[in-house]
Amino acid sequence: MMPPTAPLFDMSIVGGTILHAATGEPTAATIAVRDGLIAGIFAAGQPIEAATVVDATGLLVTPGLIDLHTHIFSRSTDLAVDADRIGVDQAVCTLVDAGSTGALDFDDFRANVIEPAATRVFSFVNVSDIGLTAGRTELMRLADVGTPALHRLLKNEAHRSIRGIKARMSSSVVGANGVQPLIIARRLASEFSLPVMVHVGNEPPAYSDVIDLLVEGDVVSHAFHGKHGGLFGGSTSIREAALRARDRGVLFDVGHGSASFSFETLERALEAGFAPDLSSTDLHNGNVDGPVHSLATTLSKLLAIGLSLPAVLGYATANAAAVLGESTTLGTLRVGSIADLSLLRIDTSSVEFTDSEGATRTGSRILSPAGAIRAGVDFRSVGAHS
């Protein structure tokens, strides 16, 4: 008697709907996984032999969601929230910690966050050696900025989890140093072919002085806040610096946060033809219970003000993967890419959403997490890692 043959695939995800890459139209399909990679996408109902079958009936199956701006290093800052609580437990496969850690504690971050997390974790390392360990004033001492320790860290191939450099450009952070920390960050980023992520809030430093230093692939976080000194600068028109930056390929990220996302600002920007490129959360323990909640909630807020589902999902999949230098491996359903998949429900009940300023909008299409598959490993049990 011949021994039984092994199933062709390790896993199949059946019954779900994907968005057709060319048209953005929903398409019923079966996704097959082998060795942690997407091995095939087949017509719904086509028989597929797989060791494990994931029933995604009634669910949207997307490339694994990526949240480019979070704070998940509790040993560094009291802001931190557990990585898996806002990662795989919320159908998010990849998180980026945005500046919680600097060169001095990065090994600690790797050992205590990156390695044990079920969620994939990358870092935009703080340009200051101390990160957020000393509160919120890390760029006031230039002696801590762009040091030999940071240079060694960036040069170390063992730290491939570092995918960019973070610099917070607010007066309360930089003090009298103005844009000098950003100049240093940009110089280092150029040397190591990394993007810079800047936090923009109230001036000073002047918005234009900050934005004019950025180059293609850099990220402006909190791009649509409602504070003085933002995208409109108190005017009715988008600032010329922002328009020039977009022409150069600088990317503009929602970066919701506790005080950094305004429905009105984004609506005005959309009317002017200035849509986001990215949508992250800036999740930490001060906003995870509101107003931000999760990446799915943040994306649902964008749906509520009229952005399309393909665009909104693209902000947190393909566009985010490109920032991380992972366009061929993450953020896509391409055969051969890593089998990171987010399973989402689309609810059609009416929900009132709140931005960072307390303004509300009512949404009728709400994305809610039903689970994550990361590199072919099933994390559908939402809440299992919180």
Structural features, described:
It is built from 11 helices and 17 strands. The protein is α/β, with parallel strands linked by helices and 386 residues long. The protein folds into 2 domains: 9-62 and 336-379, Urease, subunit C, domain 1 (Roll), CATH 2.30.40; 64-323, TIM Barrel (Alpha-Beta Barrel), CATH 3.20.20. The strands form 4 sheets. A 7-stranded parallel beta sheet has the order 6-7-8-9-10-11-12. β6, α1 and β7 (92-98) form a beta-alpha-beta unit. The longest helix has 12 residues, at 180-191. It is globular. The model is unreliable at 382-386 (pLDDT under 50).
- The pLDDT mean sits at 93
**Rg for CA atoms:** 21 Å
Uncertain residue ranges: 382-386
Tell me about the biggest sheet? 7 strands, parallel
Corresponding CATH superfamily of the largest domain? Metal-dependent hydrolases
Main β-sheet, spatial strand arrangement: 6-7-8-9-10-11-12
Oligomer: single chain
N-to-C CA distance: 48 Å
Q: In total, how many domains does the architecture comprise?
A: 2
**Can you write the helix and strand succession as a string?**
EEEEEEHEHEHEHHEHEHEHHHHEEEEE
